[in-house]
From TrEMBL:
Coiled coil: none
Alphabetical list of SUPFAM superfamilies matching this protein: Tetrapyrrole methylase
Organism per entry: Pyrobaculum aerophilum
GO biological process assignments: cobalamin biosynthetic process; methylation; protein histidyl modification to diphthamide
Protein name, UniProt field: Precorrin-6y C5,15-methyltransferase (Decarboxylating) subunit CbiE
Record-linked Pfam families: TP_methylase
Gene3D superfamilies the record matches: Cobalt-precorrin-4 Transmethylase, Domain 1, Methyltransferase, Cobalt-precorrin-4 Transmethylase, Domain 2
Alphabetically ordered keywords of this record: Cobalamin biosynthesis, Methyltransferase, S-adenosyl-L-methionine, Transferase
Biological pathway: Cofactor biosynthesis; adenosylcobalamin biosynthesis
Length: 207
């Protein structure tokens, strides 16, 4: 599905969804598309996903799993769990919040470096800091209320200084918000950010 906005689902994904006999996914994703689902629905949670995936993916027949955004952007761990139970997995690409963030910021993929901390095994930020004077960092921060602040503090500790920061919350949703300031200012920010946030850090031009 698109980045929270169900109208951003691709036509191909929608046609497959309508014909699928079994649809699985997180409740906040599946329920936005219930009007198109004709088959059985099974909800995933962080506590039951291993059990549910094993139960249904080892059986014969088609299963559709809906996720936010694009399964190939910051969702490799989930894809690996799926592939562990079902070998013939077909990925239908979608619109990621990364795409939406680039549009809001007026950037191209060629201008950025991407990192995700929204995983059980977050990326190492150290190799990225060396190129931040040439590329804008777009990151999915830790999925906590202070995730952007934690990211800012880690980057500063690694030597990123004099950088501009932007936090884009709830992209494509009705309560979409954008915060802008310096990286140091973000590290001290006391507000709680949405766990659906994208952070942009621009150190180009800083000494």
């Amino acid at each position: 599905m698109g980045r929270g906005d169900p109208s951003m689902i691709s036509l191909k994904a929608l046609e497959i969804l309508k014909k699928c006999p079994l649809v699985m996914g997180w409740r906040n994703v599946v329920d936005k598309l219930r009007e198109y689902i004709k088959g059985e629905v099974v909800y995933l949670t962080y506590t039951n996903q291993e059990e549910i995936l094993q139960k249904y993916l080892k059986t014969e027949g088609d299963v559709c799993i809906i996720t936010h955004g694009d399964p190939c952007v910051s969702d490799w761990e989930f894809l690996e769990r799926i592939k562990a139970f079902k070998a013939d997995v077909v990925v239908i690409n979608g619109v990621s919040s990364l795409n939406v963030a680039l549009a809001r910021l007026g950037l191209d993929m060629a201008h950025i470096v991407f990192a995700t901390l929204h995983a059980r095994s977050p990326q190492d930020l150290r190799p990225l800091v060396a190129i931040l004077h040439h590329r804008v960092l777009i990151a999915f921060p830790y999925p906590t209320a202070d995730g952007p602040q934690r990211l800012a503090r880690e980057l500063i500790a690694l030597g990123a200084t004099g950088c501009k920061a932007t936090v884009l919350e709830n992209l494509t949703l009705k309560d979409e918000r954008i915060w802008q300031g310096g990286l140091e200012e973000l590290s001290r920010e006391t507000r709680h950010f949405s766990d659906l946030s994208v952070v942009a850090v621009d150190c180009r031009g800083s000494s």
